[in-house]
Design a protein that fits this description.
It is an enzyme of class 3 (hydrolase). InterPro entries: Peptidase_S54_rhomboid_dom (IPR022764), Rhomboid-like_sf (IPR035952). The chain has about 190 residues and is mainly α. The chain has one domain (about 5-180): Rhomboid-like (Rhomboid-like fold, Up-down Bundle). It contains nine helices and no strands. The longest helix is centred in the middle third of the chain and has 22 residues, at about 85-105.
Length: about 190
């Protein structure tokens, strides 16, 4: 196996692990009727704190799960392939800081799904090139913007059944993380 193949494979490990946990949670809830959905983020409640860790693993239906799986695999793999030295920190922030913001500021509801993490990754990859201003980062930003430019509409409150707060928090975390790491000399 060549080093580029192992690098490409290695860059997909963390996103694939998260997606595996997402699908396993979905399977347990819908095949065995386990009430996993109650472990979403319920803002400003003691019970809702568990959702900071579990909400991205829980999805309402198959379409919801698939719509988070594909971008999680793509954006996560791009992140770790091109920005290996900072990828873990970016992923961690997109996961936890996004969910903490949702717990602190979102409307009272049960917020579930990995879209906050997806938005964090997308907004990081889109904005990093603009702040860093090197050729490769700008190209990555342009490609992600071309493929996922619709994320800008997702931060608006258009559907009461969709946690736009998770999208908005992910966008904020992605942009602030891009600003934070844009001055770092080595990112891969």
């Amino acid at each position: 196996m060549s080093s580029s193949q192992s690098s490409l494979f290695g860059s997909s490990v963390i996103p694939f692990r998260l997606v595996f946990l997402m699908w396993a949670s979905f399977y347990l809830e819908f095949v065995f009727a386990l009430p996993i959905s109650v472990y979403g983020i319920e803002p400003r409640t003691f019970h809702g704190l568990i959702g900071i860790f579990t909400a991205p693993l829980i999805h309402g239906d198959l379409l919801h799960l698939i719509s988070n799986t594909i971008p999680m695999l793509f954006l996560g793999s791009v992140l770790f392939f091109f920005y290996g030295k900072i990828g873990g920190q970016v992923f961690f922030r997109s996961y936890f800081w996004t969910n903490i913001l949702v717990w602190l500021f979102a409307r009272p509801a049960n917020h579930i799904g990995a879209s906050g993490v997806v938005y964090g990754l997308a907004f990081f990859l889109i904005s990093f090139g603009f702040f860093r201003r090197d050729f490769l980062s700008i190209i990555i930003s342009a490609i992600v913007l071309l493929l996922y430019g619709g994320v800008f509409y997702g931060v608006l409150p258009t559907d009461p059944h969709i946690s736009w707060e998770s999208h908005f928090a992910g966008a904020l975390v992605g942009i602030t993380t891009a600003v934070t790491f844009s001055k770092q000399k080595t990112v891969n």
